[in-house]
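pinned: reference chain
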Amino acid sequence: MNRFFSALRGSIESHSALLRKGRSFLPAYLKGKKLVHHDFPPVAKQVAKRLSLEFRSEIANPFPPHLKIGYQRQIADYVYGGPDRPRYFFELESLDRAQLYLFLPHGKSNDGSKLWYYWGTVCKQILGDKSMPRYFVWLLVLPDRPVTTIPFWDASKYYRLLSRHLRGIVQDNPFRFYDQMIKTSAKLFLRRNQWLKMTPTEDGWRKGRLLDYQDKCELVILTCTGQQLIMSRGRDEFDSAKEKRVLLKWSKR
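pinned: its structure tokens
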């Protein structure tokens, strides 16, 4: 995972001009999904070159119906490694999506939280699906600075997770507001006993902690603040004291 982290940092820095020295991570570039569709794909492709791994984008990760996960599939933004044994699933969450509504499991596996994608992936791997990755990685875009108006989905009428009166605090510093809350949610998700599918039979459900499977399919959360790239790992239970942080060196050209 350290190699991936280093490759991502180098790829981001080498695309300083395309990413406008970090400004592409700000709200102005959410319109038309400019970051997701235009600015970031070249970065993702260069990561593959640095790692000498096969690269694919928008790959379906379907889940068996009995897992009851949302629409029964994930579309992984980027996959590194061959289709039989991929090394990394890599998801990019821009500023409007690096919020609690996607990372707060509050009910069953169809509650809309993306953390259930990870749970389903671990279940598939336990059952011997060799197309499952060694690392399941999310990159959260959370500027460590004041930003202009952003879509505040957590306060929307649909989710009602936070008060709309918190908008000003969120905009004052999205990183300080969201980063640790999202990681705390992920930590609790790993710690709690989850029913895992251990065998293909109907009675093959057993209680087991996702935390015990970090050596087989580790959940990793990366955060890009615009100034820093931060790696927090499931094997460390997202302990902030064990995070790896590096400054991004934007080219002056």
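why pinned: The chain has one domain: 2-247. The chain has a mean pLDDT of 92.
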